[in-house]
Amino acid sequence: MTERLYYTDAYRASFDARVLRCLPGPASDGAPRFAVELDSTAFYPTSGGQPFDVGTLGDTRVLDVVDEDDGRVTHLTAGPLAEGITVRATIDWARRFDHMQQHTGQHVLSAAFDRLFANRTESFHLGAESCTIDLARAVTVGEAAAAVDEANRIVWEDRPVHVRFVSAAEAAALPLRKEPARTGTLRLIEVEDFDLSACGGTHVARTGAVGIIVVPGIERFRGGARVQFLCGVRVRRRFDAWRDAFASTQKYLSVAPDELASAIERIQDENRGLQRALRGAHEKLAVHEAAALVARAERVGERLVVVEAIADLDAVALKAMAAAAATHHGAVVVLFGAASPALVVAASHPAAAVDASATVRALVTRFGGKGGGKSDLAQGGGLIGDSAALVAAAREILTT
User: Fold this and answer.
1) 24 cis-preceded (ω within 30 degrees of 0)
2) Where in the sequence is the domain holding 350, given as residue range(s)?
3) 43 pLDDT tier (thresholds 50, 70, 90)
4) Which of 6, 189, 325, 355 is the most buried (most CB within 10 A)?
5) What is the pLDDT of residues 64-73, one digit of tens each?
6) 63: domain CATH number?
C-alpha cells in the first residue's frame, strides 16, 4: 500500500519518494502515458467527489492520479521514470489549495443544512468551475440563505479543523454527520464544535482559509435539491466575471447596475414588438409575391407548378408565401430557403392532387434533414445541397 502523506499533512506541496514501479499506461489523445507507483505520495487521487492533484515527478508531468482497489496510488505521467530512484515531487499548489477550500466549505455548508433543517447531504461533486451538494429534500430560497449565513459564521470564526483516526467501534460511538461507507480505521475531519465526518479528502487547517461560501443556484434533483456553491478563490473569480459582464452591459445600456434587469426587460418587450411587426410585413409581402410566383408558374396538365429558391426569408415568411400561392386553383408550390442547410415549404391546392407532406419527405430522403406536415402544407429543414439541385429535384418530383 502507498503511504498517503496528504492524510496527515494536506499542506505538503513537495516531497521525496522512491519509484517502486513504472509501466506503460493508457495513451491519451495518442500520446503515451506511464503508470508510476511510489512508496509514498502527497498527490491526492480522485475519490469521494474530489478530483486528483497534478504536478511533477522530477521533470515529468503528473497528468492523473488513480486510487487503486488494493490500496496503491498510481500516478499517470507524461514520461517514464527509472525504477528504484528517489524523485522530487511537486504538487500544483494553486489547484490543491482550491480543492481544500471547496471541500472544507462543503463540510461546513452540508453541516449547516443538516443542523438547521435536518436536510442531509447525499452526495458531493467538486467540478472545475463550481461544486454541488445533493440534499435529500427540496430546499427553499430562505432555507438556503439561512444555511449560507450559518456556514459563513463558522468560516469567519476561523475554527480549527482537526484530523484524527479512529476504529470502526470508536466511530460508532461518535456523532458523525453521516454514517461512513467504509469499514476499518476511519479518518475523521472535525470542524470544531460544528461538524464531524469521515472523509479522506484534503482540507484547510482552519475554517477562515475557506474565505467565503456563496450559493449561485439551486435546482430540484431526484426528489431533493442540488445546491451549487463556490468557496474562496472561486468566489473572487466569479465576482470578477460578473463585474466585467455588468460593466460591458452598462456600457451598452447606459443604466445603473440596479436598473439592468428592467432595462433588459424593456428591450425584450421592444424586440418582441418589432418581431411581430416584421412578421406582419413578411406576411403581407408574401401575399403580394405569391401572385408573382403564380404568374411565373409552369403549367403541367391541370397543375400550376411553382418551384423556386428565395433568399432572405425565414421559415415563417416562406410558409406564408407558399400557402398564399397555393390558394390559386391547381397550384402546387415548393419553396426553398437560399442558404444551406436549406429550409423547404410545400403547399398544394386540392385540385392539384399533390400530397405536400409526401413531397417534403421525398426531398428529405434525397438531401437529408427532417420534415413533415399535412397533405396541403408541409415544411422541413436541414437539406444539404445547392439551390439548383434542390429546385431540379422538386421539379422532377412534381412533373413526373
Assistant:
1) no
2) 282-399
3) very high
4) 325
5) 999 998 989 9
6) 2.40.30.130
